[in-house]
Design goal:
single chain, binds (2S)-2-hydroxybutanedioic acid, Aspartate Aminotransferase, domain 1, alpha/beta, 15 helices, two-stranded parallel sheet, Aspartate Aminotransferase, domain 2, 2 domains, seven-stranded mixed sheet
């Protein structure tokens, strides 16, 4: 069976981390995968997470299975983050939540659910989107199509083209939107644009699928949910995949959630039985540790405050590094966009879409030991005061 298997190409993002690890050069820099680093270049365990882990270790009395969709208290905590604590959908049954292994796990559950229960639905993706999105849906047998997102400059939203494309989607299609901090571009619609997107999807009878992996990395926890909430106000049916990899720093614990919003509690309950089928056939029930950490932090006011403070500090450091990158390039006379480098500080979240060409990206890696994604995406959260000068020198040499 295995004699004639051809090796697969490396993953567009995680494959670069493998290559980076194998690179013997000192001073190499990994700005490919979206992982936060502090100013010393380490990815810390948040203090709120450590405190929750200590409490969990002391209190743990069993390792028996969780329900297929995870603990109800976790689902409630997720919905409170999504909609705000006072929103009726936190408790009234119109929204139901299943714990998933990371955001990717949630997306794959959605994909399996769609394939089995809505086989004619097309899944629409922004062009560009996270490199793994099309693969997740294709692997589950879901048809995907793309709609325009950026204008010809590659640095700004082409809202008219996006909306025109969304006006053509069919009833029952699913449109995947990045709730905030669009990956890879860092370019988000503003609130009026989100409202219009919600209106168009409601008119079309299409279902938004919000990929929400960076809440708190843009402007703040509440502010970053504004687009998602505007869409969910207008569309009765919404799917939301949360990830806590970044905002809790729980990358390797694989903790996320899938929230289904339906027009009625009965409809939501019925969909959740189908979601649970998909989960059971896939990984049976969720891993406990990561979600228990999130649940413990969010159930405790002091830990929640500690977490939000730590999240603010991460966000502020990323903003500072955006500024340092822009200044460093300006000082070297490098203009990555025809209008200058202002896009770097205007974009939100972990990433900047630098506009660097594929050959420039390759030269960065070959000649300078600097790894960024092939489409020019740079993980700003991996830039530090110690590596920004080398990065700017290298970009000046290749751009
Ligand atoms: C990224 O885009 O770098 C992150 O979401 C990590 C991943 O799994 O690709």
């Amino acid at each position: 069976m295995f004699e004639h298997v051809q090796p697969a190409p490396p993953d567009a993002i995680l494959g670069l981390t493998e290559a980076y690890k194998a690179d013997p050069r000192p001073g190499k820099i990994n700005l490919a995968v979206g992982v936060y680093k502090d100013q010393d270049g380490t990815t810390p365990v948040l203090k709120a997470v450590k405190a929750a882990e200590k409490a969990l270790l002391a209190a743990e009395s069993t390792k028996s299975y969780f329900p297929i969709d995870g603990p109800a208290a976790y689902g409630r905590a997720v919905r409170a983050l999504l909609f705000g604590d006072a929103d009726p959908r936190v408790d009234d049954g119109r929204a139901r939540t299943a714990a998933t292994p990371g955001g990717t796990g949630g997306l794959r559950v959605v994909a399996d659910y769609l394939h089995v229960n809505h086989p004619d639905a097309t899944l629409w993706l922004t062009r560009p989107t996270w490199a793994n999105h099309p693969h997740i849906f294709a692997a589950a047998g879901v048809t995907t199509q793309a709609f325009p997102y950026l204008d010809a400059s590659g640095f700004a939203l082409d809202f008219d083209a996006m909306l025109a494309a969304l006006r053509e989607v069919m009833a029952g299609d699913v449109v995947l939107l990045h709730g905030c901090c669009h990956n890879p571009t860092g370019v988000d619609p503003d609130i009026e644009q989100w409202q219009q997107i919600g209106d168009v999807l409601a008119e079309r009878g299409a279902v938004p699928l919000m990929d929400f992996a960076y809440q708190g990395f843009g402007v703040g926890i509440e502010e970053d949910a504004a687009g998602l909430r505007a869409v969910a106000e207008r569309c009765d049916e919404v799917l939301i995949c949360s990830s806590f990899s970044k905002n809790f720093g729980l990358y390797n614990e694989r903790v996320g959630a899938l929230t289904v919003v339906a027009g009625s509690p009965d409809a939501a309950a019925a969909v959740m039985t189908r979601v649970k089928q998909s989960i059971r056939r896939n990984y049976s029930n969720p891993p406990a540790h990561g979600l228990s950490v999130v649940q413990t932090v969010l159930a405790d006011e002091t830990l929640t405050k500690q977490w939000t403070d730590e999240l603010s500090a991460m966000r502020q450091r990323i903003h500072a590094m955006r500024g340092a990158l822009k200044t460093g390039l300006d000082e070297r006379g490098v203009r990555l966009a025809p209008t200058g480098n202002g896009f770097i500080t205007a974009q939100r979240g972990m990433f900047t879409m630098s506009g660097l060409s594929a050959p420039a990206v390759q030269t960065l890696r070959d000649d300078h030991g600097i790894y960024v994604v092939g489409d020019g995406r740079i993980n700003v959260a991996g830039i530090t005061p110690g590596n920004v000068a080398k990065l700017c020198d290298a970009i000046a040499a290749v751009a």
